[in-house]
Design a protein that fits this description.
single chain, Arc Repressor Mutant, subunit A, 6-stranded mixed beta sheet, 5-stranded antiparallel beta sheet, 11% strand, elongated
Amino acid sequence: MQPSIRFGEDFELDPRAYQLRRAGRSLKLERIPMEILLLLTEQRGQLVSREQIAERIWGKGHFLDTDNSINGAIRKIRQILRDHPEQPRFIQTVTGRGYRFIAPVLESGEPKGELSPPGPEPRPRARLALGVTLSVLVVAVAAWVVWSRSQTPRPVAGRVMLAVLPFENLTGDAAQEYFSDGLTEEMITQLGNVDPQHLQVIARTSVMRYKNGRTPLDQVGRELGVQYIIEGSVRRDANDVRVTAQLIEAKDQRQIWAQQYDRELKDLLALQGEIAQRIAVEILSTLGRGTSRALPPPARTAREYEAYDLYLKGLYFWNKRTVPAFETAIRYFTQATIKDSTYARAYAGLASSYELLMSYSGRPPQELLSKARASALKALELDPGLAEAHTAYALLVQNHDWDWQTAERGFRRAIELNPNYATAHHWYAEHLMWRGRFDEALRESDRALQLDPLSLIIATDRGEILYLARQYDRAIETWRSVLELDPEFPRAHLIQWAYVEKGMLAEARADFERHGPGPMNVGYWSWLAAFYGRSGQPEQARHAIRKMRELSARQQLPPGSVARTYAAVGERDSALAYLERAYAEHSGELTTLKVNPVYDSLRSDPRFQSLLRRVGLAP
């Protein structure tokens, strides 16, 4: 047997005692991580493949899930060694291949400073004989099942919270990230639909923070407020896919269930439903809640898979939330609908992409509104039970038709269909905010944050609810917390207006100068004019207005933005004229009319009251 070895400053690995010690103190390391560490040190300096590791742990012809078990074991080794995967001192990852132990070692009895040579021949080890009988195999499987069930956690009171961590891309090809990320989102969607009354699933925005897998699972559990975590990986070639998944209890990182699936790519849709169903059954039966409802049979044809693959690419770019990314998402969603003209989710993706592109780009709605409407209606026609379709349509009729009753029914129907859909709760909270129903809006925002606790956009929009409710101190506190996480998150710089309303003019100006556009941009002077107008500096406001008008001949601002500027500086007629232009364009900016403080100076004007009635926001 290999003698004890010492490495690092004070680590000692003793195969005879089956112990890892640090400075003489025994460290707790479970069997699989210990076996892998032993194997890596036996073949130190050499690449050890995942197949070699699997054979060492489970034997040749292993039938259990291995990829996720190996990932989890390597993570535990790194945690206990305080090793970092990107700057390793002990274990180097060779992407798509395996691992290598790279630290110099001293064997027991060697004087300190004399390093043993790397890469000795691996020791002989027992292998499963070809003549193993079926009865022995059955006993082995039964023993594993009994052991795994003995490790399952005690029932948890109340509704269960689950996080699906980003599936690891094991292809070695960064161009396949869209596929592993898309599979993650699809699993979130599938599980969210299984039994929403008992099982809540954290949204994609929050779990993607853990994409690189360096955060300990117990910490993930605390940060997301979940009891269970799913880890997975995916390998893919031209025709086939291997998906692995394991269900883990967050607090003590016990593996409850694990499985490996090898399928043809055309069967991937069915495979997602199979995995989601299996995991839900495991969780709910563990909690004594019975079994989940069956998922509908997914599509299986090659044509439908090709459309699905394009849909995943569109979803990947849609989640980036930038104007160029929305445009790319639209191309992929469109291609998906060409491949499969009955694919409702692709039409829903198109509708929300067009809608958000209008908002993010400031383009006149006429360019995109008809396309958004046609896509949303097509999605609803194809699948009236699709929460994403109801949400996309509700947003459209709210922002551009100002049909508040239809929009509210749409958001509520989406939530009824999928209570785990964080976006529906988020956008419904905004809907309630525009109508001045702030207490209800905050409750919906809380629900969205429970499902997506690390979402910066949901937290930012919660700050806007507080701002429009004139709770400026709480709004500032909320926006500051977002900016601490990401100082460049654009929408959180709405904090400037809360500063203005509080009279914190230096703070408002400083934030704008750091993060606003430069003086050659018409938006720069528009903001300055509004700032001076709201802060009681009329001469400076008039100068900024002149600069804004000069630049507006070459650079256009949406009419709603210009209206806010004129309202802030007290030019009532100009403000109302631009609001009428925004009304003629069906601009989504008019949703703010009832609650935005900048319009307070216009509220007594009959023309403003008329506009408020026409957009359905009159008291």
